[in-house]
Design brief:
By secondary structure, the chain is mostly helical. The protein has a domain at about 20-50. About 40% of the residues lie in helices and about 5% in strands. The chain is built from two helices and two strands. The protein has a two-stranded antiparallel sheet. A hairpin with a 5-residue loop joins strand 1 and strand 2. The chain starts with a helix and ends in a 21-residue tail after the last helix.
Length: about 70
């Protein structure tokens, strides 16, 4: 017998809520709804690659650094 208490409570919670069909609703850059799984994955890959590319940021705001210790040159 496998003792999976977490899974048991998750199943009970899902049973109490009732069945809800899970859907993947993702829109492309133009706002069109994507339905095929490979196009959804490609869209997410593109989205996160754009987020992780910091070289696209062109404007940096300089902030004043306030410390109690002297700065080392």
């Amino acid at each position: 017998m496998i003792k999976n208490i977490r899974g048991l409570y998750r199943d009970i919670k899902d049973f109490k809520k009732g069945y809800h069909r899970r859907t993947n609703k993702v829109k492309d850059e133009k706002g069109d709804l994507l339905t095929e799984s490979h196009s959804i994955v490609a869209r997410w890959r593109n989205h996160f690659s754009q987020l992780s590319n910091v070289h696209r940021v062109k404007v940096f705001r300089r902030t004043k650094l306030c410390t109690t210790e002297p700065l080392v040159p």
